[in-house]
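To illustrate this point, what follows is a protein record of this kind.

___
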Amino acid sequence: MGTDESYLSTVNYPVAIAADQMAVDGGHEMCSVLLPRHLLLSVKQKPIPLTPVTETDNERPSTEATAAAEQKAPELKYTYSGGFRQVLASLGISLAVTTYQAGRLCFISSDGKDIFLSAENYQKAMGLYVHSRGLLLGTRTQVWSFMDVPQLAKRYFPDEPYDTVYLPQLTYATGDISVHDVVLLDGQVVAVNTAFSCLSLMSPEYSFVPLWKPKFISKLAPEDRCHLNGLALEGGKPRYIAALGETDSPGGWREHKATGGVIIDMYTNEILCRGLAMPHAPRVYEGDLWVLSSGAGEMGIVTSHGWEPLISLPGFLRGLAFAGPYAFVGLSKIREKKTFGGLPIEEKIKDLKCGIQIVDVRSGAVVGTLEFTELVEEIYDIQILPYRRPKLLGLFQEEQYHHIPQTNAMLARR
């Protein structure tokens, strides 16, 4: 997608409209289940149909040649500590992890003795969201929906220890809008649209429907003005969002990336916290708002007094999930100096790691580590899967899809 804004010239997006002015567009009412009505964007005109983006790499339609190439993708190499496998096994969970630069969606499980890692290729794999019936995944030009189908595990993999199967079921074509975090709200797929600096609803008719934007953003344009990225829910509704700058110009956040990061309270559209180093992954857990100050390698909480860093880790931090007393934190290396150079973490740690560390939030101690040793240099997201050994089906495993008609009938009966 280019940056030509000519197609925006006839579209007006006023903000902070009154409830009686709320528009219904294409059958979609942007109701208060998502955000209070006075904060939602008016969409009296139809959303912007983006110029189609040519699909490449692992998001193009499957052919024999493509499938063969995908099956030969290099195997990921990693090391792990005993504590890492023991924590996963004791909690009875697995992890879903996206690797961004390596373009993989990974499932990581343990039986207490070994770690099992399976990975499938999705170009620029970004935000994840686990819900009661499946999993959402944001990628370079699409948002994927996977169905969680436990019935398939024993029926089609009777000799394997899988307790469920995640099956790719549908996708929204967004164009290259730089999707970051994704969530499911009352059955509607919502994504952080970083290119256009807004929160967006996925649509069967358009690339996206804009829902909300920071008050300091003057217009919607594909210019990554503040690098909106991480979204935190509270009570099942969007509440806090991270941005790398309080800026309103193309790429304006880059100039002060080491200190310009902010957390925004979406209900008031006011800045809750300033001065963070490229913040990501705001998460509300047990009443606290946790945030990663990624460029400082710090994990902490935001309170009424501001930022309180609690834990330092040896990486650029992205990806945060909680289970019991444990936080699962993603660590990345800094591979691209133009975007990530000049950050505090570089001064503190010379040998940055890429992987996942498990932190006991009661003590701040690291109790488990998995480190990628080849191919993977960046983590984006981590989510908890409520299974000991889930099976991930990929786009190019054609031999595993010969029962799809039966699968669809099974889903319809759920």
User: Anything to note?
Assistant: Confidence is low (pLDDT under 50) at residues 1-33, 51-70, 401-414.
